[in-house]
Amino acid sequence: MYKSCHCMTTTHTEPMADEEEPLFSNLDIFLFSLIVGLLIYWFMSRKKPEPIPEFKKAPTTRETSFIEKMKKTGKNIIVFYGSQTGTAEEFANRLSKDAQRYGMKGMAADPEEYDMGELSRLSEIENALAIFCMATYGEGDPTDNAQDFYDWLQENDDEDLSGLNYTVFALGNKTYEHYNAMGKYVDKRLEELGAKRIFDLGLGDDDGNLEEDFISWREQFWPAVCEHFGVEALGDESSIRQYELKEHTDINMNKVYTGEIGRLKSFEVQKPPFDSKNPFLAPVTVNRRLNKGGDRHLMHLELDITGSKIRYESGDHVAVFPTNDSALVNKLGQILGVDLDVVISLNNLDDESNKKHPFPCPTTYRTALTHYLDITHPPRTNVLYELAQYASDPKDQEAMRKMASSSPEGKALYQSWVLDASRNILAILEDMPSLRPPIDHLCELMPRLQARYYSIASSSKVHPNSIHICAVVVEYKTKTGRINKGVATNWLKNKLVTDNGHKSTVPMYIRKSQFRLPFKATNPVIMIGPGTGIAPFMGFIQERGWLKQQGKEVGETVMYFGCRHKNEDYIYQEELEEAERNGVLTQLKVAFSRDQEHKVYVQHLLKNNKEDLWKLIHTENAHIYVCGDARNMAKDVQTTFHEIAEEMGGMMRTQATDYIKKLMTKGRYSQDVWS
């Protein structure tokens, strides 16, 4: 570059006769200045490479080929998981561990981390098998980490998977409309692409007993695998550790995790974008009780997202990362006789595994039990099986192994003693005094504490810097007389606006949803949301009000709400009645289920207004939204709409059912439900 500069200056230098030749002529100086100026401008204005934010790992040479990884590590079974709450991942880990008992080697894998186009190459590995543990999320959707795999399956019609041996275990919930849709789709689609199913699709129902469904399936699955590949079980039923303990006696505490989800110190130095691996610490600006009476605690919280660059839409979900009750954690430490403040790491014994630790390490036992591990849900049978060896009383050992078996007596004992009695790990340790496992093995076996999702109760058009949550505190007495408390709702309840002069914060991120207001504001909307199911509709009502203020023409906005007693738990009464007065809500129908002798629910009010509803749906293109309890309310509401279509539309029951199904397909009947 400087060379060409020099050439340019020399081409224009002509000596002047009889005068002392100056070193540079004016033209030289002008051109030189111009070029230097241009160079400086070029250097200053060119786009500087953006610094890589700390929390984003610089591109590593992480192996995206699971085939190469399997070859390198001598694995022949790969268990892919589509997991939203951690259960499918847990089952995948259990199946990959099982492989060892049959003389095979397995690995659990997140489909998001690998090139799934390599499935056709699995035949390169002898006796290879792909297992898919696939959960269904929301309205028949894939989990976040299986979305790309789902898209790949849909798009690649010419893929030849004839060399692939596979089986699928699906995780779902029967109370939902699209029961196990993702698992069923993967099972069917792999067969369509030529893969060979070596064992029947397993269907796990979380509304019943998911653990029992899994064990029963697994019990028949492994013998089928042995038969298919001509291998025999080794009869090795001993416990197999996945991680080894390292205690850190002399460590810089700045290197120790204190509850961060992803990057170390990410709660001290916050950097966008915020997501499930990098949550934003949102200050709590409002935390008030909504109900005027009764023994329940319904609450409204507001989280401040100013400066976070977080965007949300009405109908989205906010995910929060709760922590366990410190009293529970302390009791666990006491009963196991452990110093909870020891700094430890649990390191994977398989050096090649992508998962180096079961939770962020190094950390203390206290942090792990508070922030990272689920200690409140009843443990699954594999935990009981692995811990049984530590019971000094043979009777306790026998009972634990029995509960983990697939025998009818064992299943019944697990159902009654663990599930029906809602015994968490602490209750089991208290009720089995001879069982005192090493805390590191306990921490290895406990599932991860998961984020909790809440429907956002505000509109970003009205509250761009604030996210509202509406929830009911979970607390109940178990059959053993213990009081069990919901982790997240009790944690939220205690998030006071200022706590000892400090602002309370909630680690959170946004999960996008399909639950959306109609694109055309003129479309009528019918909202059905009893109890805390009203949450997304508070956002919808705010948004329709905002649209009206903008001078937009807004269609009918109808709200069906339900609660127990008008003077106790009619939450958001003032806001709803004001919206009705302002004409934002064109109809407000409220069912008070216990204010009279016979119970009145939202579905009864729907039936009473069938003419009006049918007109809105059938002739005015109304959109229907249902939010709340999936097990009873959502089903009853749907049945009521079938009946309305039958009566008002003169249809047979099958036609009425198809009519409502079509509304769902067109996106005119949306549900945001939980069980």
From TrEMBL:
FAD binds at R452, Y453, Y454, S455, C470, A471, V472, Y476, G486, V487, A488, T489, W674. GO terms for molecular function: flavin adenine dinucleotide binding; FMN binding; NADP binding; NADPH-hemoprotein reductase activity. It catalyses: 2 oxidized [cytochrome P450] + NADPH = 2 reduced [cytochrome P450] + NADP(+) + H(+). Residues 277-518 form the FAD-binding FR-type domain. It is a single-pass membrane protein. InterPro entries: CysJ-like_FAD-binding, FAD-bd_FR_type, Flavdoxin-like, Flavodoxin/NO_synth, Flavoprot_Pyr_Nucl_cyt_Rdtase, Flavoprotein-like_sf, FNR_nucleotide-bd, NADPH_Cyt_P450_Rdtase_alpha. In the C-terminal section; belongs to the flavoprotein pyridine nucleotide cytochrome reductase family. This is NADPH--cytochrome P450 reductase. The lineage of its organism: Eukaryota, Metazoa, Chordata, Craniata, Vertebrata. The gene is POR.
